[in-house]
Amino acid sequence: MRSIRTIDFTKMSGTGNDFIVIDAFHRTLNVDWSEFARRYCPRRTGVGVDGVLVLSPSSSADFDYRIFNADGSEAEMCGNGARCAAAFAVRHGLAGNDMRFHTLAGIVEAKVNPEDVSIKVTQPKELKTGIGIEVDARNEVVHFVNTGVPHTILFTKNLDAAPVDALGRKIRNHPHFSPAGTNVDFVEVSGSEKIRVRTYERGVEAETLACGTGAIASAILSHATGNVPHSSVLVSMPGGNLKIDFTNSNGEYHDIWLTGEVSFIFTGTLVF
């Protein structure tokens, strides 16, 4: 007879990005997290989330943070997921309001504020503007930066009409970005300090309501291309607003903070 196991979880949302959050501090969990994500992330047959966050003890920070996408792949970093993890850690006594945690992209700092959560992300790399690629016999000019995970940016004057799923999927799998692939962000500049963004997210393989690392990438590349002159940018995404603050020194971007709301949706127990 197969033994039945249970695992407690919390469903959380960071500006529309939603996650199953698991506390692996207080219980030994022998779980294949990739398979777990594939099974429980789907919206019609599972909990209905973009990914799974696992928090566990760390020898070098307040905790270790792992993120598994809905397709089972493990991501190096997820900005909105990191903000949810920080809020979860404070509520469950795993860390104080100011904390540091370890990700596959490096150490991330976080501050849990009364109304929102801010994270300081690792310095972006591989920034390149004006990349020409061919998609369906048509030339597209895109821009690239790795903000913990790879992001490719396209500027558009009509975000509402942008073919996010169709074109996003083709660029996500384009040979230029192989073998890792890329997230794809469609950006409309709406002011000197404001942009609107829609994201096709790698690993989810669809458009998501928000993407923290995508908001960061979009803000930085909007600045790097001269579309937005300010170093504090409000990013409007379908799931809500995110604020990006950064410092630019001779083309190097650092001291990057991502700020936005976080919500606890419900808790539950999964039987498997």
Structure description:
The chain has 272 residues and is an alpha+beta fold. The protein has two domains: 6-120 and 261-271, Roll (Diaminopimelate Epimerase, Chain A, domain 1); 125-259, Roll (Diaminopimelate Epimerase, Chain A, domain 1), CATH 3.10.310.10. 16% of the residues lie in helices and 47% in strands. The protein is built from four helices and 18 strands. It has an 18-stranded mixed β-sheet that branches. Strand 12 and strand 13 (194-201) form a beta hairpin. The longest helix is centred in the first third of the chain and has 13 residues, at 79-91. It is globular, with a radius of gyration of 18 Å. The chain starts with 5 loop residues before the first strand and ends with a strand. The mean pLDDT is 95.
CATH architecture of the largest domain: Roll
Helix content: 10-25%
Structure summary, number of beta strands? 18
Low-confidence stretches: none
Report the total helices: 4
Q: Please identify the top-level CATH class of the largest domain.
A: Alpha Beta
In sequence order, what are the helices and strands, one letter per element? EEHEEEHEEEEEEHEEEHEEEE
Strand content of the residues, in percent?
over 45%
Quick one: overall form? globular
Number of structural domains: 2
Largest sheet composition: 18 strands, mixed
Q: Mean of residue pLDDT? A: 95
Structural class: alpha+beta
